[in-house]
Design brief:
By secondary structure, the protein is mainly β. It has a seven-stranded mixed sheet with strand order 8-7-10-11-1-2-57, with no helix packed on it. The protein has a six-stranded antiparallel sheet with strand order 13-12-22-21-18-19, with no helix packed on it. The longest helix is centred in the N-terminal third of the chain and has 34 residues, at 222-255.
């Protein structure tokens, strides 16, 4: 497997491992496989690497500046290991190397000074200096331009007969090796691990297979020796101090947090158990399994449980007794498929709808367990979950399914085999967000799909006609959408609006689909530090109970935001935000929040979870979000499903259910009264963590401030550690 090492002069920028792609495109366009930031000398699509059997080739794409192999202009040429591919007069070039480095592949790595963590690939003759050209008229390969103590032509490194030599070519401040100053114009041999001081920077000679970026140890500088010993001690003392502060504050915070009359969450010994082999597959990691849901499959007025596991087996249990309503059924591959529960054949019993990974749309009759629909679709369904709604208003439920290639399937009268009709609509791709249905008394049903690039397609549910909108065109901002939007009336006109959430950069955008305009678009400043695994769709609900709907969004770093649904500010209006777990700064939320009425004095609560295994109940106190409960219930088990809410005991109290990596569907009972057999949330698309019960009272402002202060200090420490670790990565690596 070859490596393509992108470098600027001798500085390594990025390393690519050529593994699967047949062709690799190089250019100044960000869509290129290898992006080069030089629009003057490098064309958008400059050249193409290709593979034919065991040989590799590079072809110029008819550029004006040309493509060169080892300094010779080519149109197409076979390349071999250690060849250098350059682009006109550009400083950038690509080395074609083996994935098994040779003995002569050596690097100079910055370990101290302004060029710390920089990595330079050595050539047969490598010139080092402050400017592009040295006084002798030659070009420097390693340019230390920001260090005035470095001469224009400082030194050079030679590779001769598998040995490395360094020569000081008359520098003003001199060159040292391991603390010893070099004589001028004399070749001195270097060994791997030697430390070379040029100006105010120190470098270490390393092989390709072993990099050491630890602080200098061989330089005779007192400050470096003190720093090498004292820095870890200082770091440990600061860390102990911060952790002690947080522990002391949190202990006081929990002591004064309990109430007498409060929402109660209690774990039970009741559980539902599926395939025994499943636990071995998922015990070591949290994975996304949106395959648990609640429904009514008999007439006992108790919520029942549906589970479609990764072993392609469908389970349906009676919620009260735990006995199977019908025997487990085996289907095609169903990895990561989502289950939708709706009555599609009008027998007053819920049915089960899902799409397998081999693109079969399946509907199971909830009363008998027999198949009532099985359609072979095309393309890759990915994680797209179908929607069920009467989109043509004929009184019969229809199914909307999609694939990642942007094909939307409208399956009419899906529960009646003699009446089934199918329409397909081609939309923009790629499509990662599941479809939703926009509908009100003033608006006929519209199927809404949105591509990852922000292209919205509105499909008339009856005719299949469609029109398109662009989030980028409406907002003039980049919008990358991978989760389903929320749909609801935000301005009180009786017509639903759509609320979209994007990935990085993260916007929450409200769109009037009738007027085809963006009402507001809020930029979330608290951005994740990295690309998130999963994140939530927004929710439209009148959280503040002021007669107007609000927008709730749980960010991937553990902040719950509440926006005014209707506002005159084009940049959106944030009503409040709350950090669910201040002590965890990289708290990635993986559970889609559920909205329910769990308390008597507060009308709406939000139930959500984070990757650390905590579950939170957030309520409305004085028009602000407040954590009413948080807990962690099963220490050794990870939650790998959405949280669902319903009365499974038949006692009129709501229970919280979720699937763990032990293949157990766990049950938490609450003291929240509801109608017997009521289902508040059938199921969502995203997962959470593992739990342990814990109660908090947010009114303890003093302790909250202490925790926040400690959290800010800890955040600063974390960012510093992250900065150091990021530097230690030398350069980015990517597999193509």
């Amino acid at each position: 497997m070859p490596r393509l090492v992108l470098k600027k002069n001798s500085e390594v920028i990025k390393e690519y491992f050529w593994k699967t792609k047949e062709k690799i495109v190089v250019g100044s366009s960000k869509k290129a496989d290898i992006y080069i930031n030089d629009t003057v000398n490098v064309h958008d699509i400059h050249c193409t690497f290709s593979k034919l059997k065991d040989k590799y080739f590079v072809s110029d794409n008819q550029t004006l500046t040309g493509t060169l192999v080892n300094g010779k202009t080519i149109t197409s040429s076979e390349i071999k290991y250690n060849d250098e591919i350059s682009f006109g007069q550009s400083e950038y070039s690509i080395m074609f190397l083996s994935d098994k480095p040779s003995e002569t592949e050596l690097y100079l790595v910055g370990i101290y000074g302004k060029f710390y963590s920089k990595k330079y690939l050595l050539k047969n003759v490598t010139h080092i200096g402050r400017t592009t050209k040295n006084p002798q008229g030659g070009e420097n390969d390693i340019i230390l331009s920001t260090d005035e103590t470095v001469s224009k032509g400082h030194c050079k490194i030679l590779l001769e007969d598998k040995k490395v030599y360094i020569v000081d070519i008359g520098s003003t401040c001199g060159t040292t090796i391991n603390g010893q100053k070099l004589p001028y114009f004399e070749k001195v041999q270097l060994e791997v691990g030697d430390e070379v001081c040029v100006g105010r920077s120190i470098f270490r000679l390393c092989t390709a297979s072993e990099f050491k970026i630890s602080p200098p140890k061989k330089q005779k500088i007192l400050f470096l020796k003190i720093l090498h010993i004292g820095l870890p001690i200082i770091f440990v003392l600061i860390l102990i101090g911060l952790l002690s502060l947080l522990f002391f504050s949190l202990t006081k915070y929990l002591i004064f947090s309990k109430k007498i009359d409060e929402l109660q969450l209690q774990a039970t010994t009741k559980y539902f158990y599926g395939n025994e082999e499943f636990a071995l597959l998922t015990s070591s990691e949290v994975c996304l399994l949106p395959s648990i849901s609640l429904g009514h499959f008999n007439k006992d007025n108790v919520a029942d449980i549906v589970y479609l596991d990764k072993r392609k087996i469908l389970y349906v249990w009676d919620g009260k007794t735990g006995s199977p309503i019908f025997p487990p059924k085996e289907f095609g591959i169903t990895d990561l498929s989502g289950v939708v529960v709706e009555d599609i054949n009008d027998d007053k019993i819920d049915d089960i709808i899902f799409v397998t990974q081999d693109a079969k749309l399946v509907a199971i009759d909830g009363s008998s367990g027999t198949e009532i629909l099985k359609l072979q679709l095309q393309g890759n369904p990915g994680n797209l979950v179908p929607s069920v709604f009467d989109i043509n208003l004929d009184g019969k439920k229809d199914i909307v399914a999609c694939n990642e290639e942007g094909i939307v399937y409208l399956v009419y009268s899906a529960g009646f085999s003699s009446l089934v009709d199918i329409k397909t609509v081609a939309t923009k791709s790629p499509l990662y967000a599941s479809p939703v249905i926009a509908y009100s008394d003033k608006l006929p049903p519209l199927v809404v799909v949105c591509s990852y690039n922000g292209d919205i397609t509105l499909i008339d549910g009856k005719t299949g006609n469609f029109r398109s909108l662009s989030l980028v065109g409406l907002t003039k901002k980049p919008h990358f959408v991978s989760v389903a939007p929320a749909c609801g009336d935000l301005n009180g006109d009786g017509i639903p609006e759509l609320v979209f959430v994007t990935t990085l950069p993260q916007y929450v955008t409200c769109v009037d689909i009738v007027a085809s305009r963006a009402l507001w678009s809020y930029f979330i400043q608290l951005q994740p530090q990295q690309e998130f695994k999963y994140f939530s769709s927004p929710i439209i609900v009148d959280f503040n109970r002021d007669g107007q709907n609000d927008v709730l969004f749980l960010s991937p770093i553990g902040y719950l935001f509440c926006f005014a649904g209707s506002t005159d500010f084009s940049g959106g209006e944030l009503l409040w935000s709350i950090q669910l777990n201040p002590k965890k700064l990289q708290n990635v939320t993986v559970a889609q929040p559920a909205v329910a009425n769990l308390t008597e004095n507060l009308s709406v609560e939000v139930i959500c979870g984070d990757e650390e295994g905590y579950i939170y109940v957030v309520g409305n106190v004085n028009n602000k979000g407040k954590i009413l409960q948080q807990g962690r219930f099963f220490r050794e088990e990870k939650i790998i499903s959405p949280i669902v809410l319903g009365d499974i005991n038949g006692d009129g109290f709501i229970s919280i259910l979720f699937l763990t990596d032990s293949n157990l569907i766990r049950v938490i009972n609450t003291n929240s009264k509801s109608l017997k057999g009521m289902i508040l949330n059938k199921g969502y698309l995203y997962t959470a963590g593992h739990f342990y019960q814990q109660v908090e009272d947010i009114e303890s402002q003093r302790n909250k401030m202490v925790i926040s202060f400690g959290g800010i200090l800890f955040l600063g420490l974390f960012l510093q550690i992250r900065h150091i670790l990021k530097k230690r990565k030398f350069f980015k690596r990517k597999t193509l």
